[in-house]
Amino acid sequence: MTFRQVVRFVAIRLGVGMVVLAIVSTLVFLSVHLAPGSPEQALVEGSTATSEVIEAIRERYRLDEPVVVQYVHYLGQVATLDFGESYRTRETVTSIIGARLSTTVPLVGFGLLVTLILGTILGTVAAHRQRTAMDRTISAGSILFASAPPFALAIVLLYVFAERLGWFPVIGDWDSPFEAAWHLTLPALTLGLAGTAPMMRLVRTSMIEVLERDHVLFAHARGLSARHVLIHHTLRNSLVAAVTTAGVVLIGMLAAVAFVEIPFNLDGLGAYLIEAVVAQDVPVVQALTLLITASVLAINSMVDLLYAALDPRTRLGEGR
Amino acid sequence: MSAIQLSADDEVAVAVAPAARRRSARWPASVIVALFVLLIVVGSAVLGATLAPFEPGDTDLAKSVTMPGSENLLGTDELGRDIFSRLLVGTRSAITGPLIIAAGTLTIATALALFSAYRRGWVDQLLGRVIDTIYSLPALLVAIVVVGVVGGGYGTAVVVLTLLNVPQNYRIVRAAAIEQRGMPYVEAARSLGHSTTRILVKHLLPNVMPFVVAAFFLRFTFAIVELSSLSFIGLGVPPGASDWGRMLSENRHFLESNPWAAIGPGLALVFTAASANVLGLELYERFASRGRAR
Hints:
By secondary structure, chain A is mainly alpha-helical. In chain A, 78% of the residues lie in helices and 0% in strands. Chain A folds into 2 domains: 3-79, no CATH class; 100-278, MetI-like (MetI-like fold).
């Protein structure tokens, strides 16, 4: 994999990414303007508004101009990362997103760590105790956690470990990273447990493969070097699968994070998206939708890049 | 000298061993439990309204938030409604939507997949590209934005989720169909002059069906999670409806006073989804290995 290939790959991905983002932002724009109810209503919701106030709002947000003009203006704003102000709080969307990133990013990172660690440990144990009760229990258990709705799991865990046992806080802020870790443990566990199943399964399968070959080789007593090379080869293959799985799990976490933040009362981006959607806070929804799309594209690209790095047979082109 | 060369015996030994072990027809304990759970769930969906001791909508503010007792098996919620009754009646909305989603997705996905797997060519390529782009986006998030912005209810959510889940199933069915396509019977049918539709329906479909069934259960699982997540955040079922997701959202605020109001529907969701998942995975593994052990 030459440097040139990498640059070419990144360039193509960025280009395609821009196109996808443009399409997505257009779709969001359209759905907002074609949906029943109008943005003005969302803004004046609750308070009585005279026609002058409504007029002022329409002017302020350029809602009185033809749709096409609004669209062009919107694209311009998006390009400069200016997402305007929230309909509800008048703070700039960008600043709120920035603040909330510091909650969600550590949470997702922590969750991924949980998945990787638990998955590896459980997978190894299951592989060594193949077909025993322990193996089946681990399998069944991981399926249980993987198929549970995140918010349901969150509430159950919250009740057992925070309310009843008091090991973790139910609510609150934190200052130090240490406190952050403590506050985020249960939420990260909730996120991470769901992804443990595919990871465990993968580790188990790869390890079984290694063990089986091990067994055959020992029977022939080929010596250390042959076994070493074989394990190396198997490890490479399973690393590829591991990277793909990690990518899928990560994207799944993006979807689930909102449903973990809400029960645990964390003010993260997921909870923010839900609030914004329910309140029809259009600028926020637009901004977050783009953020999510960009994240998914980035994750996919990184997975493909790692895939190509690990398996030299893969071309870094768009061919499949 | 250090070349790794497995002799012919090794290859056979490694290849045969797993297949032979797989031949056991015993169902694992987890699958039996899963079937049992699903039976209960379906039962309460059908009979829930009749078996419920209280009316799910009946409020009794005098009994607001009480713990489980002789009268209310799982206690009451803030408005004094019996949790157990709401749980039973709520089964219907918990599984009807997902069933429709699963059936709908699989029908569409199977039709598309069979056609493009058989035909190949530019249709397959184009469809593949479109599918791939939608595939990576998390369906639930898109559903949230769409349903939230459009402002629909249960029906809208079901339709949106059905469409968004097509890509994943399309891939599964297509893979199975392509495997079948190379088989001699397909060639035979074609040389007999059968029309494409006939080949697809009479020959490919029955052989792909096992995968479709397995995928159905898996899709059902995810649909439960997705739909209940939507009702948890208030998009989907109207307030006051006895829906498990809604109940969790409403009742989680008084966990100290009556945890069962939230834990009840919570566990119901977890076990229903997990059981469908276990069943789906078991079916999938059986069908996949059956094809290979031939």
